[in-house]
Write a structure and sequence with these properties.
The complex is a heterodimer of chains A (571) and B (347). Chain A is an all-alpha fold and 571 residues long. Chain A has helices at residues 2-45, 54-60, 63-94, 100-106, 115-126, 131-140, 155-180, 183-191, 196-225, 228-232, 238-248, 252-277, 299-330, 339-371, 375-389, 396-422, 434-457, 462-470, 475-504, 507-512, 520-529, 533-559, and strands spanning 95-96, 295-296. Helix content of chain B is 23%, strand content 34%. Chain B has helices spanning 42-50, 96-101, 109-122, 138-150, 168-185, 196-202, 220-225, 230-236; strands spanning 4-12, 18-26, 31-35, 57-62, 65-69, 72-73, 81-84, 156-160, 188-193, 205-210, 213-218, 240-246, 251-253, 256-258, 270-274, 279-283, 291-299, 303-309, 315-321, 331-336, 341-343. Classes of the chains: A mainly alpha (571), B alpha+beta (347).
Chain lengths: 571, 347
C-alpha cells in the first residue's frame, strides 16, 4: 500500500512539474512571439497616425511617380517571371530533351544571385564604358552618338534584372505543382480532343494556378522590397521613397504609411486570386499517381526547348558570375586586401548568429504551440505566431522603420528616466547596435525557419510520442531520442536558408548597422554606388557562392516531392 | 457502332517488359474485358488503343480505319475514343457541366448544352450541373466521368479499372448501371480489370493476359469451364490441386477416378485441378468410395465453404449449398462433378 501511495505521489509530482514546464514554455513562447510582432504591428499601427502636411507634399510631387514606377516594375517583373518560370517548369517536367536533367536543378541557380549584384554586373558589362559597348565601338569605329544600345540603368533594365533572378520562385512552385498533377486528368483531356498545347492551357495551368500565384506573390514581394537595384538604377519606387521619406525628410509616420500601402499591393493580389477562385477546389480528386511519362522531343523543337531553359540560367547566373569571377581575378587586390577577410568574418558571424537565433526562436514557438495550454492563451499565441511569420513579407526598409521607431522610443524613455533620477545620460542603448540589427534579421527571416521547423515537427505524430511513452521514453529523453533524429535534417536546412538570406540582405543592414560595421553586402553596394564596380566584384562573388547552398538544398527537396515517385527516379 | 481490331502488336513498356498481342478484336456494340494480374500489360494495351502511346509495331484499326501502324499514328485527341480512369480524373477546376462539355468544344453552345443535358438526365445527374467534383460522392464522380467520356459519342469506350474506387455495395450497382448504359447507347467498350468477378459480370468476352501475352479469350463461361491452362483455371476461381496417377480405368486420385479427355497423354504422376463446387459431399453409406473428414465449415450465406481433410492428411476445400452444410468432424463420401475437374499437360 505504502509503495503504491508513493508511486502515486511521484506520478502526481511528475504531472505537476510537466504542467508547470508546459505553462512556462508556452508563456515564454507567447512573449517571444509578441516581441517579434512589434515591428510589424508598429508599421500597421502608423496607418492610423495622422502624418499631416507631408501627404499633401508627397501627393503633389513624388507619389504619382512612385506609384507608376512601382506598378510598371511589378507588372513587368510579373510577366517576365511567369513566362520564364512556368514555361521552363512545364518543359522539364513533361518533356525529354538534351540537358533536361541538368536544367531541372540549374534553373534554380539565379536564386543565388541577389538582384542588386546582378544590377551592378550588367551595368559593368553593358554600360557605355563596359567591355561590350567598347568592343562594338572599336569594331565599327563608332563614336558615342553613332549607335543605339539598350540602356541598362532604366526601369526596363530593372525589370530584366529582377525578372532574371526572381523567376526561380515561380519555377519552384510551378514545377512542384506540375510534378504533383494527375497525369490521368491530362490524358483524359487528350482523348477529349485537346492536343498537348490545349492540355497545358485548359487543364495543367488552371490546376497549377494557386501554386503559381503563391510563387508570383513571393517574386512580387521581393520586387517591391528591392532596394539595391532600383536605387542603383535611379528608378524611384515606393521602397526608395520610404527610404527617402524616412531618412531624407525625417517623416517616420509618412514612411510607415507608404510601407503599409506597399504591403496592401501584395495582399490585394492574393485576395483577388482568392475571390476569383470561388468555390473551385484545385487539389486533385485523386490519390493515385501515375509516373509522368516525359514525351521525347527531337530536332528543331528540342533545340528551342534547350534554349528556353538555357538562356535564363545563362543570363541570370553564368554570365554575371563569370563576369564577377573575371573581375575578381583580373584585379585581385579587390579580393586579397586586408579588409576582405574582415568582411567575410563579420558577414559570416552575424549571419551565423542570426540563423541560430532564428532557429532557437522558431523551435521555441513551434514547441510552445505544440505543448498547448489554456485555450484563450493558445489563440493569442497562434495569432502572434502568424503575425511573427509575416516578417518575410515586409521589405527591409519598412522593417527598419518598424524597429527603429519603438527602439528609439525605448532609448529616449530610459535616457529621460536616468537623467531625471540619476543625472546620467545613457544615450542610445538599443538603436544602432548589433542587437537591433540582429533583431531585424530575426523578424525578417523568422518565417523561413518557422516554416521549415513546423513542417518537420508535424511529421512527428502524437501517436509516435505516445508509442515512445508506452516504452517509458518521456520528457527530455523523448526529445533527444524521437524528435531530434527526425527533425535534425530540417533544422540544418532552416539554419542554412536563414544564413544565406542574412548574407544577402542589404537595405535593413544599410539602415540599421552600427557605425563602422560592414558586411560583404554593404561593401558591394558601396563600391558599386561609387562606380568602383571591379572592387564590388570580390564581395559579390562571395555572396553568390554562399547563395548556391540553399539552391542545392531546394533542388534536392523538390525532386523528392512527387508522391508515388521513387526518390531515385525523379531528378 | 464501331469495332476495334488490334493485330501483331508489339510494345515495350520497359526494357524487360513487352506487350505482344497477335490478334484482339472488340466486336461492335460489345463489352470486352482485359483481365489479368497487375503488370500483365492490360493497361498498356488500353493506352495504345487510346492513342496515348505509339506502338513499336503492329496495327490498330477502329472500324476499319487505321489509327496506328504502317507509318500512321492518330494521336489521342483525333481518335474519338472515350476514356475513364480508376480515379475518374475529373477536372477539379470545372463544374460538372464544364467537365461534361469539355469534349464538345467544337460544337455550338446550344447543341453542346443539349447533349450535356441529355447526358445528365441519362446518368441521373440533373441538379448537379453547377457543382464541383469535390462536392460529389464517389458514385456521383464515377457517373460524371462516364458522362464526360460518352458525351462526344466516342467510337470506343476505354475504361481502366473504373469501379475499383467504389465501395463493395455501390460497386455492383454501378457496374450493372454502366453495362445497361453501354448497351443502351450501343457503345463498344474495352474494360481493364484485375477482378475476375467483375470481368465475368460485365463482359461479353474476356481476354485474359499474363506477362504481356494473351493466355485465353472467350466468353466468361468458356473461360471458367474450359480453361486452357493452369493459370487461367486458377485465376478465374479457386482450385484444389490434387495429385493423380494413370490407371487402366482412368486417372486415379485420392478423391476418385477422373476421365479427362487428355488423360491418354499422361504416363506418370500428375496434378489435377478441382474447383471447390466440383466436390460433392454426402453422408457416408458405402465404404468403398473416397471419403474426407470435415475440419470446419464457414457459412457465407447462399453457400458454405468446407475445409476437408483427406485420409492422407491433405487439406482441400469444397463448396456446398448452405442447406447441405455438414457438421464438424463428420466423415463424408466424396463424388466429383467431372466438368469442373481439369488436367493440363505438364510443361
Amino acid at each position: 500500500m505504502a509503495v503504491a501511495g508513493s508511486t502515486q505521489n511521484l506520478t502526481i509530482k511528475k504531472a505537476r512539474s510537466r504542467e508547470l514546464f508546459s505553462s512556462l514554455g508556452s508563456g515564454l513562447s507567447l512573449l517571444v512571439a509578441l516581441l517579434i510582432s512589434i515591428p510589424i504591428l508598429v508599421v500597421f499601427g502608423f496607418v492610423f497616425v495622422p502624418a499631416g502636411d507631408i501627404w499633401v507634399h508627397l501627393a503633389s510631387t513624388v507619389l504619382p511617380l512612385y506609384l507608376i514606377n512601382t506598378l510598371i516594375l511589378g507588372g513587368g517583373v510579373a510577366i517576365l517571371v511567369l513566362t520564364i518560370g512556368v514555361s521552363t517548369a512545364w518543359l522539364v517536367t513533361m518533356y525529354e530533351f538534351p540537358g533536361r536533367r541538368y536544367f531541372s536543378w540549374a534553373l534554380f541557380l539565379p536564386l543565388a544571385m541577389p538582384a542588386y549584384i546582378i544590377a551592378y554586373t550588367y551595368t559593368g558589362m553593358f554600360d557605355f564604358a563596359g567591355p561590350v559597348q567598347t568592343y562594338v565601338r572599336e569594331l565599327f569605329g563608332w563614336g558615342r552618338a553613332d549607335y543605339w544600345f539598350p540602356p541598362v540603368r532604366t526601369i526596363g533594365g530593372a525589370i530584366m534584372m529582377l525578372g532574371l533572378v526572381l523567376y526561380p520562385y515561380v519555377y519552384l512552385v510551378s514545377r512542384a505543382a506540375f510534378l504533383e498533377q494527375s497525369v490521368c486528368a491530362l490524358e483524359v483531356g487528350r482523348t477529349l480532343g485537346r492536343n498537348s498545347w490545349g492540355v497545358f492551357w485548359e487543364i495543367a495551368l488552371p490546376l497549377a494556378r494557386p501554386a503559381i500565384v503563391t510563387g508570383l506573390a513571393l517574386a512580387l514581394m521581393e520586387t517591391l522590397s528591392d532596394f539595391g537595384t532600383v536605387q542603383y538604377f535611379a528608378v524611384d519606387t515606393f521602397t526608395t521613397g520610404i527610404y527617402r521619406t524616412w531618412l531624407g525628410l525625417g517623416e517616420p509616420a509618412a514612411a510607415a504609411q507608404l510601407a503599409a500601402m506597399l504591403m496592401g499591393f501584395v495582399f490585394l493580389l492574393v485576395i483577388l486570386e482568392r475571390i476569383n477562385r470561388g468555390a473551385r477546389k484545385y487539389y486533385h480528386t485523386t490519390g493515385r499517381y501515375q509516373q509522368i511519362r516525359r514525351a521525347p522531343i527531337m530536332g528543331f523543337k528540342a533545340g528551342l526547348a534547350f534554349l528556353a531553359c538555357f538562356i535564363p540560367i545563362f543570363l541570370g547566373f553564368f554570365l554575371p558570375t563569370g563576369w564577377l569571377l573575371n573581375e575578381s581575378i583580373s584585379s585581385p587586390e579587390s579580393v586579397l586586401n586586408a579588409e576582405f577577410p574582415k568582411l567575410v568574418i563579420s558577414s559570416i558571424s552575424i549571419a551565423a548568429m542570426a540563423s541560430i537565433l532564428a532557429l532557437v526562436i522558431a523551435m521555441l514557438l513551434v514547441y510552445g504551440n505544440r505543448l498547448g495550454g489554456q485555450k484563450s492563451v493558445s489563440k493569442i499565441r497562434t495569432f502572434s505566431l502568424r503575425v511573427a511569420a509575416m516578417g518575410y513579407a515586409i521589405p527591409g526598409p519598412v522593417l527598419a522603420v518598424g524597429i527603429l521607431i519603438p527602439f528609439g522610443f525605448a532609448d529616449n524613455a530610459v535616457d529621460q528616466f536616468m537623467r531625471a533620477q540619476f543625472g546620467v545620460s545613457t544615450g542610445l542603448i538599443l538603436s544602432g547596435t548589433l542587437f537591433a540589427l540582429m533583431f531585424a534579421y530575426v523578424v525578417r527571416f523568422l518565417a523561413v525557419s518557422l516554416n521549415t521547423v513546423e513542417g518537420s515537427v508535424e511529421k512527428i505524430t502524437p501517436s509516435m510520442e505516445q508509442a515512445a511513452r508506452t516504452m517509458g521514453v518521456t520528457g527530455m529523453r523523448a526529445l533527444f531520442k524521437v524528435h531530434v533524429p527526425i527533425i535534425s535534417g530540417s533544422l540544418m536546412t532552416a539554419l542554412l536558408l536563414v544564413f544565406v538570406d542574412v548574407m544577402k540582405e542589404l537595405p535593413a543592414t544599410l539602415i540599421m548597422r552600427p557605425f563602422g560595421f560592414e558586411t560583404l553586402a554593404v561593401r558591394a553596394y558601396e563600391m558599386a554606388s561609387d562606380e568602383r564596380l571591379s572592387e564590388a566584384a570580390g564581395p559579390s562573388i562571395a555572396i553568390v557562392l554562399a547563395g548556391i547552398i540553399p539552391v542545392i538544398i531546394l533542388s534536392r527537396a523538390i525532386g523528392r516531392s512527387r508522391p508515388g515517385q521513387k526518390s531515385g527516379e525523379e531528378s | 457502332m464501331s469495332k476495334l481490331t488490334i493485330t501483331d502488336l508489339l510494345h515495350h513498356n520497359s526494357e524487360s517488359f513487352a506487350v505482344k498481342i497477335d490478334h484482339l478484336e472488340v466486336d461492335a456494340g460489345t463489352i470486352l474485358c482485359l483481365l489479368g494480374p497487375s503488370g500483365c500489360g492490360k493497361s498498356t494495351t488500353l493506352r495504345l488503343a487510346a492513342g496515348l502511346d505509339n506502338p513499336e509495331a503492329g496495327n490498330i484499326h477502329i472500324n476499319g480505319d487505321r489509327v496506328a501502324g504502317g507509318g500512321v499514328f492518330v494521336p489521342a485527341e483525333d481518335r474519338h475514343v472515350g476514356l475513364v480512369f480508376q480515379d475518374y480524373a475529373l477536372f477539379p477546376h470545372l463544374t460538372v457541366l464544364g467537365n461534361i462539355q469539355f469534349g464538345l468544344q467544337k460544337m455550338k453552345a446550344k447543341q453542346r448544352n443539349g447533349i450535356a443535358q441529355s447526358m445528365m438526365e441519362k446518368l441521373d445527374l440533373t441538379g448537379f450541373s453547377e457543382k464541383y467534383p469535390h462536392m460529389l460522392s464517389g458514385g456521383e464522380q464515377q457517373r460524371v466521368a462516364l458522362a464526360r467520356a460518352l458525351a462526344p459519342n466516342p467510337r470506343i469506350m476505354l475504361m481502366d479499372e473504373p469501379f475499383s474506387g467504389l465501395d463493395v455495395v455501390l460497386r455492383n450497382h454501378v457496374r450493372d448501371e454502366t453495362v445497361a448504359l453501354l448497351k443502351e447507347t450501343g457503345t463498344t467498350a474495352l474494360l481493364v480489370t484485375h477482378d475476375p468477378e467483375e470481368a465475368m459480370r460485365m463482359a461479353d468476352k474476356i481476354v485474359l493476359m499474363k506477362d504481356g501475352r494473351i493466355e485465353q479469350q472467350g466468353t466468361p463461361a468458356e473461360l471458367y469451364s474450359n480453361p486452357n491452362s493452369e493459370f487461367v483455371a486458377s485465376f478465374l476461381g479457386d482450385v484444389n490441386r490434387i495429385s493423380a496417377s494413370p490407371s487402366p480405368e482412368g486417372l486415379r486420385s485420392e478423391i476418385g477416378l477422373i476421365f479427362p479427355e487428355n488423360a491418354k497423354n499422361i504416363s506418370g504422376d500428375c496434378e489435377i485441378l478441382v474447383r471447390p463446387e466440383a466436390i460433392r459431399l454426402r453422408p457416408t453409406k458405402e465404404i468403398n468410395g473416397p471419403t474426407a473428414r470435415v475440419i470446419q465449415s464457414r457459412n457465407l450465406g447462399a453457400y458454405c465453404l468446407v475445409d476437408l481433410e483427406l485420409p492422407s492428411g491433405k487439406m482441400i476445400v469444397a463448396r456446398a449449398a448452405s442447406i447441405l452444410q455438414p457438421e464438424d468432424n463428420q466423415v463424408c463420401a466424396i463424388s466429383l462433378d467431372q466438368r469442373h475437374v481439369f488436367l493440363f499437360d505438364p510443361i
